[in-house]
Amino acid sequence: MSLKNISILAVDDDPDMLIALRLLLKPRVKTITTEKNPELLRSLLTEENYDLLLLDMNFTSSLHTGNEGMYWLRKAKALKPNLQVIMITAYADVDLAVRSLKEGAADFIVKPWHNEKLIEAIEEIYNKKENSSQKKKAAGPEHESDGLDHFIGHSAAINEVLYKVKKIAPTDANILILGENGTGKDMIAHAIHQQSLRNKGPFIKVDVGALTSSLFESELFGHKKGAFTDAREDRPGRFEMASGGTLFLDEIGNISLPQQAKLLSVLQNRIVHRLGSNEGRPIDIRLICATNLPMQELANEARFRKDLIYRINTVEITLPPLRERKEDVLPLAVHFCKVYCDKYMKSLLPLSGQAKDKLLQYHYSGNVRELQYAIERAVIMCEGDTLQAGDIIFSPIEKYIHTNEQPHTTNLELLEKSTIIKVIEKHDGNITRAAKELGLTRTALYRRLSKYDI
């Protein structure tokens, strides 16, 4: 395909490399922008829409670990999930290549590169993208109903999630959905089932975090009559009820280690034994799990079994918090406004300019759910024909949550990691300023970013 319509950003601290890239690509592409300082990456990606990022692995001459490049790769993908990235390094390290691809890079090239190979790599990426778009068009409108019709949002972060759902839903892979409370984990689980080959089968949801230890086995695996005092009849568990369909275990991160061992045994053997029975019953399920715990907490073996994580996490989907996709706030607000105007039999109330500003400036600790409840209250209380800023009242508990927040740990490593994250966010990703405030060199800060996988 022709590259004349694509815009490329190249970030490398070697000016000779940038000149070479500019001379090579300028006649072939729409625009080529070059930058030596990776700390300007955030502003560059925000100000312009680039199709491709060429990113160096090493920005510190004394270090050649690739950690800086991995850090900026993660930041670029978090800001623009659909951005295609080719990593560049002077050190042909296969492990580093695998790491960058796992982090979302599209390809990996080694300096000094062959010009033809670099052009071929770029063309290959965009041929694949073009073919994918053509397949979607060829699918026709009859394939549009996919269970995501009510998932409101057009941000890059949400589009990446929805693309991932469409890719993995037709498989039988076990899926772990990560995300804060109120981000829509239930809705994604339903959508995956609806798009799967099991969509004619049952979809069974269990809030396993709410099950007591005495109810855990009975609810999930079933029981025989007389197995315990109140067992007055044989009863199948949720695993059996979900056979042929999908089992959704919500809040999986809240179950105890003994419960995890029992769950792991069933998932490994695909056989359940009802309480009070020695008879094994085969199950045929697709497993989806969800938790509001971050992956680093699940990775703590004192809290969660590593072998169970591997079992439930064939594919991982992380739902971004609403505060990280502010472009979705107003479309969601308009949607909820329509829903609650219909529910409470009111004429459609448009949002005033000040109401929109208030919605966009709020933090949303409760995510989409908090926005939904705020709009419902506003529709109920509104006395005019337009929703004003004064009609929108967020939950009063939020100000106490933020005011009284204190560190919940005395673990030095966790405190250090938390402090580093806060300082980097404070300086909008500027590593030089963050390192200065922390009293570290940039090299020392990069080492800690690698250590804590930030």
Could you characterize the architecture of this molecule?
The protein is of the alpha/beta class. It has a 5-stranded parallel beta sheet, with helices on both faces. The chain has helices at residues 15-25, 41-47, 67-79, 94-102, 115-139, 156-168, 185-195, 213-221, 238-241, 257-269, 295-298, 306-312, 329-343, 353-361, 367-381, 397-403, 412-426, 431-438, 442-451; strands spanning 7-11, 31-35, 52-56, 84-89, 107-110, 175-178, 203-207, 222-223, 235-236, 246-250, 271-273, 280-282, 286-291, 315-318. The chain folds into 4 domains: 7-136, Rossmann fold (3-Layer(aba) Sandwich), CATH 3.40.50.2300; 156-318, Rossmann fold, CATH 3.40.50; 323-403, Helicase, Ruva Protein, domain 3, CATH 1.10.8.60; 412-451, Arc Repressor Mutant, subunit A (Orthogonal Bundle), CATH 1.10.10.
Features:
single chain; 454 residues; alpha/beta; Rossmann fold; Helicase, Ruva Protein, domain 3; 4 domains; five-stranded parallel β-sheet
Distance between the terminal alpha carbons, to the nearest Å?
37 Å
Helix proportion: 40-55%
Number of domains as seen in the coordinates: 4
Structural class: alpha/beta
Cα gyration radius (Å)? 25 Å
Q: Averaging pLDDT over every residue, what do you get?
A: 84
> Strand sequence of the main sheet, in spatial order?
2-1-3-4-5
Low-confidence segments, given as residue ranges, are: 140-145, 398-407
CATH homologous superfamily designation of the largest domain: P-loop containing nucleotide triphosphate hydrolases
Would you give the CATH topology of the largest domain? Answer: Rossmann fold
Task: Supply the CATH architecture of the largest domain.
Answer: 3-Layer(aba) Sandwich
Largest β-sheet summary = 5 strands, parallel
Count of helical regions: 19
Strand content range? 5-15%
Q: What multimeric state do the chains show? A: single chain
Basic shape: globular
Number of strands: 14
